Amino acid sequence: MIEASVGEDGTNRVDDVRAIQWLLLRIGIDPGAVDGLAGLRLITAIRTAQDRFGVEADGRIDPGGQTIAHLTNARATWDGDSRNWPQERKLASLHPRFRSRIVRVIAALKRDGLRPTIVYGWRSVAVQRRLLREGVTQVGFSFHNAQTPDGLPAAWAADLVDDRWYWTEPECHVFFRALGAAGKAEGLIWGGDWTFRDWAHLQGRRNAELASVRRESGLT
Ligand SMILES: [Zn+2]
Protein backbone atom coordinates (compact mmCIF):
# COMPACT_ATOMS: atom_id res chain seq x y z
CA MET A 1 0.00 0.00 0.00
CA ILE A 2 2.75 2.46 0.99
CA GLU A 3 6.48 1.79 0.81
CA ALA A 4 7.65 4.35 3.38
CA SER A 5 6.22 6.57 6.11
CA VAL A 6 3.85 9.45 5.27
CA GLY A 7 3.07 12.59 7.30
CA GLU A 8 4.88 14.30 10.16
CA ASP A 9 8.65 13.67 9.79
CA GLY A 10 7.86 10.93 7.26
CA THR A 11 9.76 9.95 4.10
CA ASN A 12 6.79 11.23 2.07
CA ARG A 13 7.38 9.62 -1.31
CA VAL A 14 5.05 11.26 -3.82
CA ASP A 15 3.26 8.00 -4.69
CA ASP A 16 2.80 7.11 -1.02
CA VAL A 17 1.46 10.55 -0.16
CA ARG A 18 -0.98 10.41 -3.04
CA ALA A 19 -2.21 6.97 -1.94
CA ILE A 20 -2.82 8.27 1.59
CA GLN A 21 -4.64 11.33 0.24
CA TRP A 22 -7.03 9.05 -1.62
CA LEU A 23 -7.50 6.80 1.40
CA LEU A 24 -8.39 9.81 3.56
CA LEU A 25 -10.81 11.13 0.95
CA ARG A 26 -12.71 7.89 0.80
CA ILE A 27 -13.42 7.95 4.53
CA GLY A 28 -14.64 11.54 4.23
CA ILE A 29 -11.60 13.42 5.52
CA ASP A 30 -10.36 16.21 3.27
CA PRO A 31 -6.55 16.10 2.86
CA GLY A 32 -6.49 19.06 0.44
CA ALA A 33 -5.52 18.50 -3.19
CA VAL A 34 -4.48 14.97 -4.21
CA ASP A 35 -1.04 16.18 -5.31
CA GLY A 36 1.44 13.86 -3.58
CA LEU A 37 2.71 16.68 -1.36
CA ALA A 38 2.72 16.25 2.42
CA GLY A 39 1.73 19.64 3.82
CA LEU A 40 0.17 20.78 7.05
CA ARG A 41 -3.30 20.01 5.76
CA LEU A 42 -2.42 16.37 5.11
CA ILE A 43 -0.84 15.98 8.55
CA THR A 44 -3.93 17.49 10.18
CA ALA A 45 -6.10 15.09 8.16
CA ILE A 46 -3.98 12.12 9.28
CA ARG A 47 -4.41 13.20 12.93
CA THR A 48 -8.18 13.48 12.41
CA ALA A 49 -8.25 9.94 11.01
CA GLN A 50 -6.11 8.61 13.86
CA ASP A 51 -8.45 10.20 16.42
CA ARG A 52 -11.36 8.51 14.69
CA PHE A 53 -9.60 5.13 14.68
CA GLY A 54 -8.61 5.47 18.33
CA VAL A 55 -4.86 5.20 17.64
CA GLU A 56 -2.13 7.63 18.67
CA ALA A 57 -2.61 10.89 16.73
CA ASP A 58 1.02 11.48 15.82
CA GLY A 59 0.25 12.67 12.28
CA ARG A 60 2.37 9.96 10.71
CA ILE A 61 1.49 6.72 8.88
CA ASP A 62 4.02 3.88 8.81
CA PRO A 63 3.93 0.82 6.50
CA GLY A 64 2.48 -2.08 8.45
CA GLY A 65 1.22 0.22 11.23
CA GLN A 66 -2.22 0.53 12.79
CA THR A 67 -3.34 3.64 10.90
CA ILE A 68 -2.77 2.14 7.46
CA ALA A 69 -4.59 -1.02 8.57
CA HIS A 70 -7.65 0.99 9.60
CA LEU A 71 -7.54 3.08 6.43
CA THR A 72 -7.41 0.09 4.10
CA ASN A 73 -10.18 -1.76 5.98
CA ALA A 74 -12.60 1.09 5.33
CA ARG A 75 -13.72 -0.63 2.11
CA ALA A 76 -15.89 -3.07 4.04
CA THR A 77 -18.27 -0.30 5.14
CA TRP A 78 -19.38 0.61 1.61
CA ASP A 79 -21.34 -2.42 0.43
CA GLY A 80 -25.08 -2.88 -0.04
CA ASP A 81 -27.64 -0.72 -1.86
CA SER A 82 -26.62 2.87 -1.22
CA ARG A 83 -30.21 4.08 -1.53
CA ASN A 84 -30.99 2.33 1.77
CA TRP A 85 -28.05 3.75 3.67
CA PRO A 86 -28.64 6.10 6.63
CA GLN A 87 -28.32 9.81 5.88
CA GLU A 88 -24.92 10.15 7.57
CA ARG A 89 -23.51 7.38 5.41
CA LYS A 90 -24.94 8.95 2.27
CA LEU A 91 -23.27 12.21 3.24
CA ALA A 92 -20.00 10.39 3.86
CA SER A 93 -20.23 8.92 0.35
CA LEU A 94 -19.93 12.38 -1.22
CA HIS A 95 -16.64 13.91 -2.27
CA PRO A 96 -15.51 16.07 0.69
CA ARG A 97 -15.45 19.27 -1.35
CA PHE A 98 -19.02 18.61 -2.55
CA ARG A 99 -20.24 17.34 0.81
CA SER A 100 -19.45 20.55 2.71
CA ARG A 101 -21.75 22.43 0.32
CA ILE A 102 -24.55 19.86 0.56
CA VAL A 103 -24.36 20.10 4.36
CA ARG A 104 -24.91 23.87 4.08
CA VAL A 105 -27.80 23.39 1.59
CA ILE A 106 -29.50 20.97 4.00
CA ALA A 107 -29.06 23.41 6.91
CA ALA A 108 -30.52 26.28 4.86
CA LEU A 109 -33.57 24.23 3.83
CA LYS A 110 -34.18 23.11 7.41
CA ARG A 111 -34.07 26.73 8.56
CA ASP A 112 -36.94 27.32 6.12
CA GLY A 113 -39.00 24.57 7.76
CA LEU A 114 -38.34 22.01 4.99
CA ARG A 115 -37.34 18.39 5.60
CA PRO A 116 -34.57 17.57 3.10
CA THR A 117 -33.48 13.96 2.82
CA ILE A 118 -30.86 12.48 0.51
CA VAL A 119 -32.25 9.70 -1.68
CA TYR A 120 -29.06 8.98 -3.59
CA GLY A 121 -25.59 10.24 -2.81
CA TRP A 122 -23.06 7.85 -4.29
CA ARG A 123 -24.08 4.76 -6.16
CA SER A 124 -21.86 2.14 -7.71
CA VAL A 125 -21.25 1.84 -11.43
CA ALA A 126 -22.94 -1.59 -11.22
CA VAL A 127 -26.14 -0.04 -9.81
CA GLN A 128 -25.95 2.71 -12.44
CA ARG A 129 -25.88 0.08 -15.20
CA ARG A 130 -28.91 -1.66 -13.67
CA LEU A 131 -30.81 1.66 -13.58
CA LEU A 132 -29.83 2.19 -17.22
CA ARG A 133 -31.27 -1.19 -18.20
CA GLU A 134 -34.46 -0.41 -16.25
CA GLY A 135 -34.83 2.92 -18.07
CA VAL A 136 -34.57 4.92 -14.83
CA THR A 137 -31.52 6.79 -16.12
CA GLN A 138 -30.13 7.52 -19.57
CA VAL A 139 -26.44 7.46 -18.77
CA GLY A 140 -24.05 4.65 -17.93
CA PHE A 141 -21.81 6.88 -15.81
CA SER A 142 -22.94 9.90 -13.81
CA PHE A 143 -21.53 12.22 -11.18
CA HIS A 144 -23.25 9.97 -8.61
CA ASN A 145 -20.76 7.22 -9.58
CA ALA A 146 -17.60 9.25 -8.97
CA GLN A 147 -15.15 7.25 -6.87
CA THR A 148 -11.54 7.02 -5.82
CA PRO A 149 -9.35 5.02 -8.26
CA ASP A 150 -9.72 1.98 -6.00
CA GLY A 151 -13.49 2.10 -6.15
CA LEU A 152 -14.60 3.85 -2.99
CA PRO A 153 -17.36 6.50 -2.90
CA ALA A 154 -16.57 10.14 -3.74
CA ALA A 155 -19.78 11.30 -5.45
CA TRP A 156 -20.13 14.72 -7.05
CA ALA A 157 -23.96 14.52 -7.14
CA ALA A 158 -26.79 14.06 -4.66
CA ASP A 159 -30.56 13.78 -5.04
CA LEU A 160 -32.60 15.46 -2.32
CA VAL A 161 -36.34 15.44 -1.67
CA ASP A 162 -38.58 16.50 1.22
CA ASP A 163 -39.42 13.40 3.23
CA ARG A 164 -43.11 14.43 3.33
CA TRP A 165 -43.56 14.78 -0.44
CA TYR A 166 -40.77 13.06 -2.41
CA TRP A 167 -41.51 13.65 -6.12
CA THR A 168 -45.15 14.71 -5.76
CA GLU A 169 -45.93 17.41 -8.34
CA PRO A 170 -42.30 18.47 -8.60
CA GLU A 171 -42.89 21.18 -11.20
CA CYS A 172 -44.71 23.46 -8.77
CA HIS A 173 -43.30 22.27 -5.49
CA VAL A 174 -41.89 24.78 -3.01
CA PHE A 175 -39.25 22.27 -1.89
CA PHE A 176 -37.56 21.92 -5.27
CA ARG A 177 -37.57 25.68 -5.88
CA ALA A 178 -35.88 26.13 -2.51
CA LEU A 179 -33.44 23.30 -3.27
CA GLY A 180 -32.44 24.91 -6.56
CA ALA A 181 -31.96 28.33 -4.95
CA ALA A 182 -29.96 26.98 -1.99
CA GLY A 183 -27.82 24.79 -4.26
CA LYS A 184 -27.01 27.63 -6.63
CA ALA A 185 -26.15 29.87 -3.67
CA GLU A 186 -23.43 27.28 -2.94
CA GLY A 187 -22.23 27.31 -6.56
CA LEU A 188 -23.85 23.95 -7.35
CA ILE A 189 -25.66 22.93 -10.52
CA TRP A 190 -29.36 22.09 -10.18
CA GLY A 191 -31.01 19.50 -12.43
CA GLY A 192 -34.28 21.48 -12.32
CA ASP A 193 -32.70 23.96 -14.74
CA TRP A 194 -32.14 21.32 -17.42
CA THR A 195 -34.36 20.61 -20.41
CA PHE A 196 -35.00 17.11 -19.03
CA ARG A 197 -35.73 18.30 -15.52
CA ASP A 198 -34.05 16.37 -12.75
CA TRP A 199 -35.70 18.19 -9.85
CA ALA A 200 -33.97 16.52 -6.92
CA HIS A 201 -30.46 16.57 -8.40
CA LEU A 202 -27.57 18.79 -7.33
CA GLN A 203 -24.04 18.36 -8.64
CA GLY A 204 -20.72 20.00 -7.92
CA ARG A 205 -19.08 19.71 -11.32
CA ARG A 206 -20.18 20.88 -14.77
CA ASN A 207 -21.55 18.34 -17.26
CA ALA A 208 -18.56 19.08 -19.51
CA GLU A 209 -16.31 17.64 -16.79
CA LEU A 210 -17.97 14.22 -16.77
CA ALA A 211 -15.21 12.57 -18.83
CA SER A 212 -12.48 13.89 -16.53
CA VAL A 213 -14.40 12.80 -13.42
CA ARG A 214 -14.67 9.37 -14.99
CA ARG A 215 -10.90 9.28 -15.50
CA GLU A 216 -10.28 10.52 -11.93
CA SER A 217 -12.47 7.60 -10.83
CA GLY A 218 -10.05 5.16 -12.44
CA LEU A 219 -12.57 4.21 -15.16
CA THR A 220 -11.90 4.41 -18.88
ZN1 LIG B 1 -29.14 12.73 -9.46
Structure overview:
The chain has 220 residues and is α+β, with helices and mostly antiparallel strands. The chain has two domains: 6-76, Orthogonal Bundle (Muramoyl-pentapeptide Carboxypeptidase, domain 1), CATH 1.10.101; 79-216, Muramoyl-pentapeptide Carboxypeptidase, domain 2, CATH 3.30.1380.10. It has eight helices and six strands, in the order E-H-H-E-H-H-H-E-H-E-H-E-E-H. It has helices at residues 14-26, 40-53, 66-73, 87-92, 96-111, 125-133, 174-185, 210-216; strands at 6-7, 60-61, 116-120, 157-162, 189-190, 201-203. It has a four-stranded antiparallel β-sheet. It has a two-stranded antiparallel sheet with strand order 1-2. Helix 5 (96-111) crosses helix 7 (174-185). The mean pLDDT is 91. Zinc ion (ZN) is lined by residues 144, 157, 159, 198, 201.
Shape verdict: elongated
Q: What is the helix tally?
A: 8
| Cα distance spanning the termini | 23 Å
Following the backbone from N to C, one meets helices and strands in this order, namely EHHEHHHEHEHEEH
DSSP E strands, number: 6
Low-confidence stretches: none
The helix-and-strand class reads: alpha+beta
Instruction: Provide mean pLDDT, rounded.
Output: 91
